[in-house]
Amino acid sequence: FLPFLAAALLSTLMAARVDWALVEFSRLVKLLVILVYLQFNLNVDEWWACVAGFGVATSAQAALSILQVALGKTSLGIVGLIGGGGESTEAAAQADAMQGAMGGWFRAYGMIGHPANLATYFLLTIPILLGLAFALTGKRKWLALVSAVLGMAGLACTQSRGPWMFGAVEIVVVLIGLVLFRILAANRAVIL
User: Is 126:34 a contact under the CB 8 Å cutoff?
Assistant: First the structure.
């Protein structure tokens, strides 16, 4: 996290609007404070509960994304999938415009509200789950793997091309990290 924070500070100092960049940097500092607090106040079982929460949240967003694309209903989240709630004319017009711009394809919004933001969410959770899938054993390994694969499917449903490329880079970085920490053999990582 500290290298990321250092890069964010550098980016903040070079930003065209330093005041806006400082707001985002302050959010990262708050996250650092939360992480430090959690590090010193959670035991191992509580940490695993947090990791399980990431897995469940990623799986839920991915499942919703897949359903949205399969059923062609991207507005109103879960309520829209089951046919409840009236879709506003503005939301319907936005969904039609987005579908027209994508050549008739539906893009997943999940519960986040925009495909690009949903893709960013998946980019934050997939590497963690993928790394755990290789590092753990037993039931936890398979749960992490299923959540990572669902996250990748959800990422594909967003149809955000930039995050697909970043996702591929993240997977390579995770595999390199697993090899460096001797969790995964180098020849096996190359095959993957």
Answer: no
